[in-house]
């Protein structure tokens, strides 16, 4: 071969070696996921072999475990979204969970569906200060009291009106009477007249008196309710109102703050030291003249509201709640919701706004959220804010946010500030509201006229919704910084129901002590309300069931709330005059009364009964200062007598049925039990019945003995027993009537 030929051959071989191999344009999704070679066919041979769909969408970009986890979670969310959309179709029948009957399937309520739904019942009730009935929903204490009253009426054969089980105030409807001031009257009239008689005109404060009550605001409502007023800006505004003379320029915000602090400050004083500030009434309506003057000023701002307008509506709602004007409070909250939307607070603040203004707008919006949640969960009415819409981001509790808030409070540790209480309170209401919505927003499989308490299986099925939310509340507890937790004696656990006493730390500012106490009381209060529907007066849940466990949780939280409130009032002054603490205690006490009459022999009942006594002492403490608490103490004492009567009667029945522990001289029914003995197998002589041998009578008798409720009639088993119980009832009813 010539040299030229060899060179040409070598060049050709090099060119052949340099030629790029044919590559697949893009492997299919399945091959890329498994990192196998794809032949670029459609479908590829690998997918054909695996009998899978071959696609090349490019959607799979997962290369790490973290990315895979995120992708899986994204797909799960999409599946849940599609399932919810499918359920909302009118013709969709939801699948029945495995192991349950079709009649017990629960589905989310569809407001746009074609078929009707069964809703939780409520009650039409006439409040103490109203002339017309109003509707109160299933979560309200009033509805629970109505069910309790019906139960007591049936079992004691005495009428128990709901109205008589609700504490009322001596002020009655006095807040509704506007003050009348004659044109020549001095609007800064002194509080105490020389004659000692109540004034007939509006009572307004002088500058020194106003400053006294305004200063209360910063250490109480400002730090322990919600921080919606810039302290520095308010003080500057307040000084500008005094332009000369003895009267300041009108300001609705100043008036409502003074009214709130008069109600609180006077409620912390004994009744004989309150002077004429209450005008012959009680502390609930102290400051009403300032309240009404502020309302008059607010009426001019309805068309053109400002942040100050919203602040006034929120604080008015707090004032009305403290005075037990619940419908007026609900109306004030609804006005606040509308005003917040008018101001655009549901949206994140604009980027060009200062950090200080941004945080104030966020705190205002979430204060509206808290008040909407608080008022409507309390009254059992629909929320006015919809969780389905996006909201403004949560406010900040950082050191920088605290420095620019307008108030100067020292950091409290754990990177927490005085604003941290507000943030964690918001998060608590978010958890409670989610649980509330999930539980009550159900399509109940009920027959016409039937309630959830009429069928234990339906009550048990509804209980299965709550465990996830119970865990959510525990997650909230774990996230609360230690600086906001109340310490316990004997290494007890804060924010728990372990029953340990508080370790009250000294040398703490009152505002921080109050924050810790109120955060824990709010946690227990919301838990009591959430779990209370499982105290059923119609049919008890099965022993050991989830519904019974949740009823026990309700009692545990009510017991803990009573212990904390009583200890704080006995050892400190930080709850003196705090009306929200009184309302929480009343709520817990009535829940405990309901628990005791339903579970008279439970292991928790003795502790619950002791907690009711603590509640009475709390009402006595509050009762020294305002009338409604005295009335609550009177109602509770009367209920205690009746509860003890029912507990004793229940114990008599259990003793009779199980232990046979009555006196042998008593004339008891014969047969299977005679004089507390069972007939012997050989000579017919009776032998004692012992708990460890009760099974010898057979499982039917044992079930009948241990499952009998005190509202059942044992006369169906032993007719002679009626005479014995009737005799005991006459004795105890005579004692009650004497009381």
Automatic annotation (TrEMBL):
Domain Zn(2)-C6 fungal-type as annotated: residue spans: 27-56
One GO molecular-function entry: zinc ion binding
Chain spans, region Disordered: 85-124
Gene Ontology biological process terms, A to Z: DNA-templated transcription; positive regulation of transcription from RNA polymerase II promoter by galactose
Keyword annotations from UniProtKB, A to Z: DNA-binding, Metal-binding, Nucleus, Transcription, Transcription regulation
Short name of any one Pfam family annotated for the protein: Fungal_trans
Residues annotated as transmembrane: none
SMART domains: Fungal_trans (SM00906), GAL4 (SM00066)
SUPFAM superfamilies, alphabetized: Zn2/Cys6 DNA-binding domain
GO cellular component terms, A-Z: nucleus
Keyword Chloroplast attributed: no
Record protein name field: Zn(2)-C6 fungal-type domain-containing protein
Organism: Penicillium salamii
